[in-house]
Amino acid sequence: MATADFDTLRQRLVPAAGPASLSHGMLVFALAPAELMPTVQRLKGEFAFDLFLDVTAVDWLGQTPRFEVVHHFYSTVHKVRVRLKTRVSEADPSVDSLVPLYGSAAFMERECHDMYGIVFRGNADLRPILLYEGFVGHPLRKDYPKQQEQPLVPYRT
Amino acid sequence: MDTPLANPVRSIFEGKLRDDTVIVNIGPSHPATHGTVQIIAELDGERVLRTDVHCGYLHRGFEKECEDHTWHNLIPYVDRLNYVSALINDFAYCDGVEQLMGVQITPRCRYLRTLLSEYSRLVDHLTCVAAGLMEMGAMTAFLYLVMIRDYMYEHLAALTGARVTHTYGRIGGLARDLPAGWLTRLEEILTQYEDFIARVHALVDRNRIFIDRLRDVGVISTADALHWGYTGPILRSTGVPRDLRKDTPYLAYAELDFDVPVGIKGDNYDRYFVRMREMDESVYMMRQLMDMLPEGPINVDDRRCTFPDKTLVYSEIESLINHFKLVMDGPSVPAGEAYCAHEAPNGELGFYLVSTGGGTPYKVHVRAPSFVHMGGAHRMLDGGQLADIVPTFGSINMIGGECDR
Amino acid sequence: MYARTIPIVPATRSKDASFEYLTTRKDELVGWARKFSLFPYPFVTACCAMEFMAVSASPYDTDRFGAALPRFSPRQADLLMVVGTVTHKQAPILLKVYEQMCEPKWVMAFGVCATSGGFYQNYAALLGIDRIIPVDVYVPGCPPRPEMVIDGIMQLQDKIARASHPIITRNF
Questions:
Q1: What domains, with CATH codes, occur in chain C?
Q2: Do C122 and A153 touch (CB under 8 A)?
Q3: I want to staple B402 with a disulfide (CB 3.0 to 4.6 A). Which of A148, B251, B299, B370 is the partner?
């Protein structure tokens, strides 16, 4: 990506999305949960970030708010990526769902819910996708023991 | 045998759309769905009205395992994500860690990684096309392509030690340098490849049966493809030349001359042909790289990530301690986060790495193209025939290790 | 919890001494026929699939051993080749497929993930398929070289040849 394009995009994005930091060549915006949806709508509508890459979460056990939900976007027009980070607490780990804007958000939000327990308001289908019905807990949280199995078929004796 | 077995999934269908439809289960243990995807389809005769795609049958806990291993030790896990093109996963992951550490790889390593990435792309596309054609009955094409793929496996085993899951990338370089005669054998394999591919082209391209089964089947538009997150050959088959190797060049791609093949309609035939053309472009790139490959060291001379020479480890105390620390604690990566994306044969393969300092990662997340593509698979399957599910699913190239991680 | 398990029983071999000559000849004949006409059900999940494809094609052809023709219906297959990692989500499907196969049936654990879970020792993977179904031959490797798979098939063929094959039993 050309540096000049990137700089102009950055100058236009920063007033739209808030203070940005640069992390290894990528623009990162730290947002409050309420700012997430309007920012994404502006990114998609005004700045042509048409490809939603990924949503995941990081479990900062011990810190409050505990979870950090991370979204990545890519613009096929400007050929640049951007990262949005939101902090949510353990008591109410919910953010807005991006399903109305991007179809690909459906499966990715299901996975994030499976692994971390993040609730996406607006996503009607938060069934387990990588785990199975009857699995209790969210394995990627730091307090879930790695080897705690929940077998569906009892073992032979 | 009276007690039922647990059902691991719950269908989203509340009930049937009409009284005369049938809901069938194309279960996970099915050759067309690569053994790990379940499609619950509602059918009106042979026509598919709607589908509910379930993946996750190969969820092996990759991200949780990574949090328990050092940055080096988890490279075998990374390999087994897209196990058909294992080297690209290695290099994308190592690139991410090198960005976090601020390590610059040597020129020889850069060109060699590019060459091996294209080699892996060849292997992946060969497997995808071979499996796809076999599922439609073309056993001959499968046997031709798997034979040439077997030569490539043996060749890569001579370099890396393993046929399928190579574990060849290292942080700061590669595991070992090329053995003598490797490039000569590569040229022989590429010549044989051209012969075999010509035969498959002759069998499939203008064959009435394949055109009927692949043309105008599984169509997706560009707007739909972007909305549902498609990248890679599927997006290119709709007509847009989006390729990370051209758009955001990494490794040595900026110095290579290659085209980005695109399709016209976004159907199965275009995806098949885009993959065939991409293989030819990969061979062209590999021939350029074989000429451009410079001499020099493979690993960067950086104590933080590169293992010292064995003779030094046995004679000097500093090297011994360095080796010990690298093995026991892992390379210490400064705190931070990085997202590194490479153009895998399926699309954008991204690694989101979070480090809090130290030798083990805090989080390793994979943006797997197959998983995202499964989210939009119903757009290509709905409205088609039941028998069209097989070639459409094959053309998406869902790789279970990557989809479910 | 759904309480359906296959109990672990030691192998027994009871023979009627008066007909021993005839039954050994019959067993040899039936064993020879069964070992050279294996119909595998490739329960394929992960990376080992690549080596399964390679061992089915040239130059490592399984057709030489009579084990080439896969049958994708468990009703028609007699060798269940579990190729790749079986997760807890997949375990009920594996048990169902195994139960749907008719006697005589054999199970090959192809790869370390099917043998013991491999290096996926966590909440998601079933740590070895012998926790839910009985296994006849284990082929370790990650993934195993095609020669190892062929060695496994040959060892299974020896096992079939040595076994007793009751054609007419009390229940039949």
A1: 39-162 (3.40.50.12280)
A2: no
A3: B370
Q: Are A24 and B99 an interchain contact pair (Cβ–Cβ within 8 Å)?
A: yes
Residues in chain B with pLDDT < 50?
none
pLDDT exceeds 90 at position C51: yes
pLDDT in tens, C93-129: 999 999 999 888 999 999 999 999 999 999 999 999 9
User: Residue A123 burial by CB count (10 A; 0-12/13-18/19+): exposed, middle or buried?
Assistant: middle
From chain C residues 3-22, the ones with a CB under 8 A of any chain A CB are 3-8
Residue B171 lies in domain: 62-367
Q: Which chains, if any, share at least 3 CB pairs under 8 A with chain B?
A: A, C
**Is B7 contained in some domain?**
no
**C102: contact with B, CB 8 A cutoff:** no
The residue of B58, B124, B167 whose CB has the most chain C CBs within 10 angstroms, and thus the best one to mutate to test that interface, is B58
B59 touches chain A (CB under 8 A): yes
- Mutation target to probe the B interface, by most B beta carbons within 10 A, among A54, A111, A118, A120 is A54
Cβ-based contacts of A153 with chain C (< 8 Å): 2, 4-5, 88, 91-92, 95, 132
Q: What is the mean pLDDT of residues A80-90?
A: 91
A156: chain C residues, CB-CB within 8 Å: 5-8, 130-134
At which residue do the structure tokens 């016209």 appear? B264
Does residue A1 carry a pLDDT above 50?
A: no
Of B116, B43, B130, the closest CA to residue B85 belongs to: B116
Q: What is the 3-state secondary structure (H, E, C) of chain B?
A: CCCCCCCCCCCCCCCCCCCCCEEEEECCCCCCCCCCCEEEEEEECCEEEEEEEECCCCCCCHHHHHCCCCCCCCHHHHHCCCHHHHHHHHHHHHHHHHHHHCCCCCHHHHHHHHHHHHHHHHHHHHHHHHHHHHHCCCHHHHHHHHHHHHHHHHHHHHHHCCCCCCCCEECCEECCCCCCCHHHHHHHHHHHHHHHHHHHHHHHCCCHHHHHHHCCCCCCCHHHHHHCCCCCHHHHHCCCCCCHHHHCCCCCHHHCCCCCCCCCCCCHHHHHHHHHHHHHHHHHHHHHHHHHCCCCCCCCCCCCCCCCCHHHHHHCHHHHHHHHHHHHCCCCCCCEEEEEEEEECCEEEEEEEEECCCCCCCEEEEECHHHHHHHHHHHHHCCCEHHHHHHHHHHHCCCHHHHHC
B52 found inside a domain: no
Residues A4-31, mean pLDDT to the nearest whole number: 74
Q: Which of A65, A49, A46 has its CA nearest to residue A57?
A: A65
pTM score of the predicted model: 0.93
Tokens of B203: 């069998």
Q: How far is CA C45 from the centre of its chain?
A: 16
B19 falls within a domain: no
B376 in a structural domain: no
Report the distance separating Cα B212 and Cα B209, nearest Å: 5
Stretch 21-40 of chain B: residues touching chain A, C-beta under 8 Å: none
Indicate the number of domains in chain B.
1
CATH of A3-121, one of 3.30.460.80, 2.60.40.1080, 1.10.3720.10, 2.60.40.10: 3.30.460.80
Q: Please check whether residue B49 is in contact with residue B40, taking contact to mean a CB–CB distance below 8 angstroms.
A: no
Give the CATH number, domain containing residue B150: 1.10.645.10
The answer to whether residue C68 scores a pLDDT higher than 90 is: no
pLDDT at C8: 80
Check pLDDT > 70 for residue A87. yes
